[in-house]
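If your schedule permits, I should be very grateful for your opinion on a structural question. Kindly check, if you would, that the fold set down in the tokens agrees with what the sequence suggests. Thank you for your consideration; the sequence and its tokens are set out here:
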Amino acid sequence: MVFNRFVEVGRVVLINYGPESGKLATIIDIIDQNKCLVDGPEEITGVARQKISYSRISLTDFKAKVQRNARAKSLKAAWAEDDILAKWEATSWAKKLAVKKRRATLTDFERFKLMVAKQKRNSLVSKKVKEMS
């Protein structure tokens, strides 16, 4: 298996630590071996242009076609052209993050209802397994 997620200009990343945790951004410039310059674009993802450490980001499979130090307008156009946000929403990674976020916001009663539903499902599955064997 060949590694194909490189730190490069235009690579879409997921920020996994800090105030912008869970948001997408695009690498605009590489500062050194430990940091890069990222930009949202802010109107789409809510991430302002900033330098960020590589340890705080995760590389995705998506790459926007932008020049080094691209302006917000050209970055926004590249995101729209490649339809990056829709592609991201379709990935299993994004779906897992959405489920995790939803579960974190459940109330006590919703967690109880979920537990009861799981118990019912498990009892039906065990009955079917007993019938089959």
